[in-house]
Structures are given as C-alpha cells and as structure tokens.
Amino acid sequence: MPVNFFGEFMSRSRNLMLSMMLATASLAVQAQSVQTLGTQVIVPASGEIIVPNDQVRATLMIEEQDKDKVAAASRVNQKMKQGIDIVKRQDPQAVLKSHGYFTYAIYSDETPRNAGKARQIVGWRVGQYLDVVTSNLAALPKTVAAAQGILALNGLQFGLTPESVKKQDAALIDATYKNLNERLVAIARAMGRNPGDASLETVDFEGSGNYAGSNDSMPKAMMMRAAAPVREEVAEPSFEAGESTLSMRLVGKVKFK
Predict the structure, then answer these.
(1) 44 lies in some domain
(2) What do you get for the CA distance between the two ends of the chain, in Å?
(3) Which residue, among 34, 80, 56, has the nearest Cα to 242 in the 3D structure?
(4) Range of 232's domain?
(5) Which of 103, 193, 214, 241 is the most exposed place for a label (fewest CB within 10 A)?
(6) pLDDT surpasses 80 at 36
(7) Within a domain: residue 11?
(8) What's the rounded Cα separation, in Å, for the pair 199 and 191?
(9) Largest CA distance in the chain
(10) What is the CATH number of the domain that holds 221?
C-alpha cells in the first residue's frame, strides 16, 4: 500500500511539471507571435554638438557709500562714466548696456526708544551696473584689467554669438536625425521586425538652441568702502572661454507595414 501511494504521488508530480512546462512554452509562443502589422510607434530623439564659445558677457559695477546722498551719487556717476570710456577705448566693438541703478538708505543699528519712531538714516549706498558684450576674447583680459582700475568685475558669462548658433543649425539637425534613425533600428529589432518595414510618417522638431540660461537676473551687489583708493593699474586676469552645448529635440511617428 505505501508503495502504490508513492508511485501515484510521483506520477502526479510528473504530470504537474509537464503541465507547467507546456503552459510556459505556450506563453512564449504567444509572446513571439504578437502581431506588429500596422503598428504606430512614437520615437523621441535628441542631438547635441559642442561648440567653442566665441562671445562673453561681462558685468561691471560701481558702488559708493556716504552720509551725503548727493556725494555718493556723484562719485558713482563720475566713475561709471570713466569706466565706460575705458571700455570703449579698449574694445570699440563691444556692446554696452547700463542697468540696475540703485540708491539705498543706511539706517542706524540703534533701536528707537519710542515704538512709533523710525530709525535714523546714517548714510546712503548708491551703485550701478554695466553689461559689456563682446566677441573680442583676445582683448578681454586687457579690457577687464583696465576697467577694474575704476569699476569692479561682478560677473562673467561665456557663450555663442547668434551667427555661430545659425552656422551650427545644419549639424545639429543632422545629429538629431541620426539619433532618430539609430533608435528606430533598435526598436525594430526589439520587435522582431526589419527596419526597412518602417515608414516615417511625421517628424516634429520640438525645440532647439537651448544652449544658455536666462541672463535677465540682476547680479548681487559687491560691497565697497567709500574711502577705498582708486587703483590706477590692475594685473590682467586669466579667462578660459570654454564650450557650449547646443541641443535639439524631435519626435518621429513611425508605422510598420
């Protein structure tokens, strides 16, 4: 009796294993037989090219502090004019833009005894910014050093001229379209289809030229003492222009025969 029970148990185990193997094989056959005839596939693609920077935006600034608001403003106006004249002499092709003129009151640190009484003004802080955009990178160190005799360098950002971006447009489109083809071939092979069976129905170029961030934010003020002496000569700084990455995106709609 125990022998028969053991034999029956082994027989049922073999049947169960055989059923599981057949089920697995059936699922595999079904997965391989999924039809892709007429299937539409949305394929996103992107392209990038790296280009040496050929333009710079330097932000210069001046700030003065004085008990007399008129005196502080006069020094700022005078020094900014001198700085502008220096930049124009050093780099005549540069494009200059003034912005961010500010006048702030400086209040006493002492807390008024009367709650309704305002704090006393003990001085004034006046300043102004100057943006200098140029493609003359060779003369940049000399220009900045000359300007730093009067003004302070508050920011420096390298990028590409609009002309350079336009020149790279064809190369960027080519790189993006090449990526689309590469992804299409990979998708076709994963589906078990011949890439030649796919026809490209739509190409949507979503955007390009996203190579730089916004430049509209005002640089933070750099504190300077009103009594600081003006340096006549400043050693030339060293700059590396670096590179910019131009990117483009597209989406293709592909249909398999």
Answers:
(1) no
(2) 64
(3) 56
(4) 55-159+216-242
(5) 214
(6) no
(7) no
(8) 15
(9) 116
(10) 3.30.70
